Amino acid sequence: MLRGIPDIIGSDLLKALADTGHGDLIVIADHFYPPVTKSPNAISIQAKGNTAAEMVDAILQLVPLDVDYCEHPIEYMVPDADSGVVLKENKVWDDTIAAVVKHGYDAKCVGEIERTKFYEKAKNAYVTVCTSERLPYGCIILQKGVM
Q1: Looking at 12, 31, 103, 119, which residue is catalytic?
Q2: Which residue among the candidates 19, 22, 80, 94 is catalytic per the annotation?
Q3: Active site includes 66?
Q4: Which residue among the candidates 24, 66, 76, 95 is catalytic per the annotation?
Q5: How far is residue 34's CA from residue 128's CA, in Å, rounded to a whole number?
Q6: Please, which pLDDT band fits residue 116 given cuts at 50, 70 and 90?
Q7: What pLDDT digit, counting tens, does each position of 36-54 carry?
Q8: Rounded CA separation 76/97 (Å)
Q9: Does pTM surpass 0.90?
Q10: What pLDDT is stored for residue 147 in this prediction?
Q11: What order of strands is seen across the sheet that includes strand 140-143?
């Protein structure tokens, strides 16, 4: 047993996070995200029973964001501009920003990334954490920083 590790971080995820380095990408995937096809080279970790924002909160207890080298080291998925989908607010986005601020980061380090660009960026992820998030556009990418 380890102290200080959030209960929702299982041993496989803990190992994967420990293996990440500066600049590595961590995808927090919603229930509908297909990790094998969208992040084929990433380690896929099941974290079912948790929301995307809960996983962001837990991961930020262990992993720093890359605020020194990246304007938006955490990005949440939004609809493509030409998709016709209009989504002005989302509880996942609000709760993610709240988790970032809770861990001492400025809310400005959180950015938006269109769905198609998200998928392109997620191809380079080191780890994908698959949650039970059911709200639309509930996917997030974190870029790891240094301690």
Answers
A1: 119
A2: 22
A3: yes
A4: 66
A5: 10
A6: very high
A7: 999 999 999 999 999 999 9
A8: 10
A9: yes
A10: 77
A11: 43-46, 127-130, 25-29, 140-143, 74-78, 110-114
